[in-house]
């Protein structure tokens, strides 16, 4: 009996020693994963509130830090009419010595300050055609007049300049290439004139191409953070308070689907906007889509490869070169074309006025076509 008791005591002691080692090792592992913040007594484990981006005030902190740099943009467009054809008649008004009647259209949008000296980034469509632009800035009793420094129609970006007379709060630009699908984001803007409205969501997808009216967007960030009319031009922020996108468009047929221009696009053209340099973009004048299973069956192709021409603009380089609807572009300027995006990238890499060759499948026959690259006209996709 005594021997069994000693054996039991030894087993319990060894088990306790092992458990102690495991517990200490486990605590060290947790400490490595979630290190205590500087200043914590004894280097204890971090609580949930101390973990970056997890605390209950994480989003509120970002909003309080960034909101002063988010602005409301108001525009006025002079349409030159009052709506009454008799009263608006210039001969009538001249005969009675009346000034010419004018009607104004007003618009609202968002933007954000990107430098202390008053540069403001927004969408081109927010200020397009405006005769007067004013900006509401936090801390100022009156709206500030703004002028357009540079604009890019195709990218839907515009850079404004304020003369505030003092340094302004501004937002840092983040790297949109590093953001991941599922990361939390914050949108701040002025939907329906409700200034500094905050919505949150995640990045739903990256690299989305969409078409809105006559404008073709490429490589957009998709988010489920609520974006509504008036949000255009406002910032899409990560949890560090950095701008990763410019809120731009919504899907009118769906709720919870919005799109933003990534900051990687802004970085490429910001200096051009500051210097009012209008980018020259190569163009051939075709609408294309990737070859899918339906196209394989209808065109008798061997596999889903190439860019299917679904439209050719009259008078364009593609039209002059003889491209037709139903052609499948397999190679362009020595670049193999696997899908529609490949063709877009290959065209972008060309120089205006350059002559390039394209390999095209038409009625199961491969033919070579010579195309002269042109400058893309405004308002054409």
Automatic annotation (TrEMBL):
Single GO term (MF): serine-type endopeptidase activity
Enzyme Commission number(s) of this protein: 3.4.21.107
Keyword Amino-acid biosynthesis carried by entry: no
A Pfam family this chain is assigned to: PDZ_2
Domain of life of the source: Bacteria
Domain PDZ residue range list: 285-348
Enzyme class per UniProt: hydrolase
GO BP: proteolysis
Keywords: Hydrolase, Protease
Protein name (Swiss-Prot/TrEMBL): Putative periplasmic serine endoprotease DegP-like
Species the sequence originates in: Pelotomaculum schinkii
């Amino acid at each position: 009996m005594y021997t069994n008791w000693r054996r039991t005591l030894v087993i319990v002691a060894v088990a306790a020693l092992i458990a102690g080692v495991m517990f200490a090792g486990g605590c060290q592992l947790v400490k490595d994963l979630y290190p205590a913040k500087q200043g914590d007594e004894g280097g204890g484990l971090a609580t949930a509130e101390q973990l970056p981006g997890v605390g209950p005030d994480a989003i509120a902190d970002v909003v309080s830090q960034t909101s002063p740099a988010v602005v409301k943009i108001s525009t006025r467009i002079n349409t030159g009419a009052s709506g009454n054809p008799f009263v608006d008649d210039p001969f009538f008004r001249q005969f009675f010595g009346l000034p010419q009647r004018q009607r104004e259209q007003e618009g609202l949008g968002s933007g954000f300050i990107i430098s202390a000296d008053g540069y403001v980034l927004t969408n081109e469509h927010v200020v397009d055609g405006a005769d007067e632009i004013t900006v509401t800035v936090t801390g100022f009793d009156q709206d500030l007049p703004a002028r357009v420094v540079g604009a890019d129609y195709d990218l839907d970006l515009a850079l404004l300049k304020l003369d505030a007379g003092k340094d302004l709060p501004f937002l840092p630009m983040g790297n949109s290439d590093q953001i991941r699908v599922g990361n939390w984001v914050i949108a701040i803007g002025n939907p329906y004139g409700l200034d500094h409205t905050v919505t949150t969501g995640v990045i739903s997808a990256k690299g989305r191409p969409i078409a809105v009216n006559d404008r073709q967007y490429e490589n957009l960030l998709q988010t489920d953070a609520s974006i509504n009319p008036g949000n255009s031009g406002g910032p899409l922020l990560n949890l560090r308070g950095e701008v990763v996108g410019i809120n731009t468009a919504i899907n009118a047929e769906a709720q919870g689907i919005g799109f933003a221009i990534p900051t990687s696009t802004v970085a490429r053209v910001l200096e051009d906007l500051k210097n009012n340099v209008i980018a020259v973009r190569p163009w051939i004048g075709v609408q294309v889509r990737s070859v899918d299973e339906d196209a394989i069956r209808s065109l008798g192709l061997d596999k889903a490869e190439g860019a299917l021409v679904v439209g050719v603009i009259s008078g364009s380089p593609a039209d002059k070169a003889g491209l037709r609807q139903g052609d499948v572009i397999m190679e362009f300027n020595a670049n193999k074309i696997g899908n529609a995006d490949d063709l877009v990238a290959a065209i972008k890499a060309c120089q205006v006025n350059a002559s390039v060759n394209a390999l095209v499948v038409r009625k199961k026959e491969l033919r070579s076509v010579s195309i002269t690259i042109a400058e893309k006209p405004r308002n054409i996709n």
